[in-house]
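Readers of this paper often ask what the protein records in our data store actually look like. Such a record has a labelled line for the sequence and another for the backbone structure tokens. Nothing more is needed to write down the fold, since each code stands for a local backbone conformation. The remainder of this section carries one protein's record, kept here as part of the documentation.
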Amino acid sequence: MGGEIIGNDGLPLKSLGRLKDVIGAFRSLEPNLPASYIDAFLAVALRPGQGPTDYAAMLGTIQPVASRTLMEIGESARTRVAPLHLVASHPHPESRRQIAYDLTPKGYTLAYRVGMMLQGR
């Protein structure tokens, strides 16, 4: 990255600081948010409108695990008191038997915020 501040140990301090800010943005939702939830959220942000099978392939897991993770960051949390409401499911436009996921307004706001942090804005 241009203009990167390098610390005494040769570490890219600006980039590491931005990463810390991004992690803080996710932790503001829940202090112990699992990395798998962040991974699933970013998969939906990068490729909205896909189904659990597609996201499972992107995440390197199986469809049932991807489905549970998407539910946890969506509207039907099984293991937390309050759902995160970052993604929403809806019937897939091409098949009523399939489900597609998109970001909610809250999820879009978080994705935008994280993107701006990474750009240093």
User: Anything to note?
Assistant: The helical segments are 13-27, 35-46, 52-59, 63-72, 105-118. The first helix runs from residue 13 to 27. The beta strands are 87-92, 95-103.
